[in-house]
Amino acid sequence: MANRILVDVEENYPVPSWLDKIEPFTSRVLEKCGYDGQEVSVLFCSDSFIQNLNSEYRGIDSPTDVLSFENGETYSDEDGTQWFAAGDIVISLDTLPKNAEYFEVDQEEELKRLIVHGLLHLNGYDHGEEHVEKGKEPDCEMLVLQKKIMEELKDEHIF
């Protein structure tokens, strides 16, 4: 089978030139993790859009880099194919360059990290209170796996 990736951009937000590369990259991450038959949506947005979501769903009235909304439902399409609706990933393109600067990486690497991070959350991983910090090795299973996937996909390009 395969995975179904839906990619979109917030209404009236400039469409990035690399948008068509998100679906194949996201599919490769899911394949690398051994996931098949998943449906995932990825939405790119502004800080104000993600701040509204962060406030509504997490009670934190500030922008963030990435949010994941698990669905977890299984359904059959009109052909009878079973899909696991993993959920939605929302990524702020306004926060992306700030994160890249903080972590001293290019924006492409940071974008890849945010996609991997979101996909792991959709598949049940959680990092609790631990977050990726500059110069600190991760301890929790999710962040260790995230780092491993990033290393394995270092030659994959989006930009």
TrEMBL record:
EC number: 3.1.-.-
Enzyme class at the top of the EC tree: hydrolase
Cofactor note: Binds 1 zinc ion.
Top-level taxon: Bacteria
Gene3D superfamilies membership: Metalloproteases ('zincins'), catalytic domain (3.40.390.30)
Cofactor(s) listed in the protein's UniProt record: Zn(2+)
Keywords: Cytoplasm, Endonuclease, Hydrolase, Metal-binding, Nuclease, Ribosome biogenesis, rRNA processing, Zinc
Molecular function in Gene Ontology: metalloendopeptidase activity; RNA endonuclease activity; zinc ion binding
GO BP field: rRNA processing
InterPro entries: MetalPrtase_cat_dom_sf_prd, YbeY, YbeY_CS
Gene Ontology annotations for the cellular component aspect, listed alphabetically: cytoplasm
Residues involved in Zn(2+) binding: H117, H121, H127
Subcellular location: Cytoplasm
Biological function: Single strand-specific metallo-endoribonuclease involved in late-stage 70S ribosome quality control and in maturation of the 3' terminus of the 16S rRNA.
Family: Belongs to the endoribonuclease YbeY family.
The name this protein goes by in its record: Endoribonuclease YbeY
Gene: ybeY
